[in-house]
Amino acid sequence: MFFERPKSGECAILVHIDMADEVDRESPKELEELALSAGADPVAFLTGSRSLPNPKTFIGSGKVEELRDLVHLHEAELVIFNHALSPGQEREIERAIECRVLDRTGLILDIFAQRARTHEGKLQVELAQLEHMSTRLVRGWTHLERQKGGIGLRGPGETQLETDRRLLRARIKSILKRLEKVRKQREQGRRARSRSEVPTISLVGYTNAGKSTLFNRITDAEVYAADQLFATLDPTLRRIDLADVGPAILADTVGFIRHLPHKLVEAFRATLQETTEAELLLHVIDAYDEDRQSHMHEVHTVLKEIGADEVLTLEVYNKIDMLERAEARIDRNDEGKPIRVWLSAVSGEGIELLFEAITELLVDDIFHQQLSLRPEEGGLRAQLYAQGAVLNEVVDEQGMIDLEVRIQKKDLLQLLSRMHIAPERYLGDNVNKPEWLHS
User: What string of DSSP letters covers 34-92?
Assistant: First the structure.
């Protein structure tokens, strides 16, 4: 965008080096999946190990020679490192092998750029790309790093590189301003849902865990779902109806990944705000993935970074159709609360158990017992019927109405307050009344 680069093709060499001091090593398999998701055609995989990265070229001189030979052998036009490279390291490697070099962060940014569909998503990706490029501009402008001069070119003594950085900062400032407007619009929507007491349920999880497939199964939506990393980028909201809860909003969000670039987390903060302010998180986990434990750890890390680690969470183990002798079920803690649901979003097995678990976690307190109404309290009877709270009705000879009622306690309190009926009459003296009822 801001500087000329060699035209890149799909033929790519992948590079993965194991570092002795790395606590969380990247996965070579994941690098290949990322490359395929970006549209590259991996033709060779260079691996090795080092105690520490080379400050100049990340890999040693021998590996640089080996990499150059692979590039010439396969006529590759792109080399992808499964690591974060400094701008200087990228420049040195490119100069040595005469081929374009991309690090892990740049690869993920490229995939995000391909997947963005909405105006907001494109803005967020562009912001992350610009911030990533800002430290790498020197590569494209080395031939212009001199003062402008000559007739008609005498200016404020600004180099071309400085001019470009100034324009880049102006563009970043413009995008941030537009994203702030989007953030305020989302905030208004959340406040409106909060006033109407509509809970938000957000799907989170490692990329390619099956969130969009589950979202489509629950909502009958047609969100793009594919067996590739970051198939979903733009957030989607849909309304669902839950027994005893009523309407709720289900949000499908971007998938997380190991060492998700911090620039992306910052750029997508407006989108991820849906997650931080949700009443319930559905952490979708690929039950068939042998690396699921490490992936769960990465999701928890990102949730903590965006301030959503304290939100009530239900684990959803997906893809049980790929496991032998796996059955749909709900796992509960010592208090009997649901903590985990096993299901298959593809076959639909266990979806009804997921609804059951969500309802149990979201329902504050259900009032389910008999109410005896006097004949003159027909208005309350009508309101209870209007809310679908009456399960059974018996009228005795004196005209007393015995109703079997099932309703959320807060809804019953609100109804009694509207009709100027003391809640103690039906819920006893120890009823916990909300603050608005005391005023």
Answer: HHHHTT-EEEEEEEEEESS-BTTTBS-HHHHHHHHHHHHHHT-SEEEESSPPPHHHHHH
Backbone angles phi, psi at 182, to 5 degrees: -65, -40
- In whole angstroms, give the CA distance from residue 192 to residue 280: 18
Last residue of a domain, one of 313, 343, 362: 362
Other beta carbons within 10 angstroms of residue 312's beta carbon come to: 12
348 has a pLDDT exceeding 60: yes
Domain with residue 213: its CATH number is 3.40.50.300
Known binding site for Mg(2+): residues? 212, 232
Number of other residues whose CB lies within 10 A of the CB of residue 224: 13
Do residues 363 and 342 touch, judged by C-beta distance below 8 A?
no
Spatial separation of the C-alpha atoms in residues 205 and 402, rounded to whole Å? 48
- Distance, CA of 223 to CA of 216 (rounded, Å): 6
Q: Which of 362, 378, 400 is the C-terminal boundary of a domain?
A: 362
The closest of 75, 53, 77, 73 to 63, measured between CA atoms, is 53
Q: Decide: 342 and 350 in contact? Cβ < 8 Å.
A: yes
The tens digit of pLDDT for each residue in 256-297 reads 777 666 666 666 665 677 678 788 999 999 999 888 898 898
Asked whether 276 and 313 are in contact (CB, 8 A), the reply is no
142 occurs within a structural domain: no
Q: Does residue 182 form part of some domain?
A: no
Concatenated DSSP letters of 373-401: E-GGGHHHHHHHHHTT-EEEEEE-TT--E
| Contact call for residues 222 and 236 (beta carbons, < 8 A) | no
Please state, in angstroms and rounded to a whole number, the distance separating the CA atoms of residues 178 and 175: 5
- Would you list which residues are annotated within the binding site for GTP? 205-212, 230-234, 252-255, 318-321
Tell me how far apart the alpha carbons of residues 94 and 390 are, in angstroms, rounded to a whole number: 73
Q: Cα 282 to the chain's mean position, in Å?
A: 11
| Contact between 253 and 370 (Cβ < 8 Å) | no
- Which of 138-142, 178-182, 272-276, 361-365 bottoms out in mean pLDDT, i.e. has the lowest? 138-142
CA–CA dist 14, 103 (Å, integer): 10
Residues placed in the known binding site: 205-212, 230-234, 252-255, 318-321
Burial class, 135, CB count within 10 angstroms (exposed 0-12 / middle 13-18 / buried 19+): exposed
Higher pLDDT pick, 25 / 315: 315
- Among the listed residues 183, 338, 355, the one whose alpha carbon sits nearest the alpha carbon of residue 272: 183
Residue 186's nearest CA partner among 269, 125, 302 is 269
Q: Is residue 211 part of a domain?
A: yes
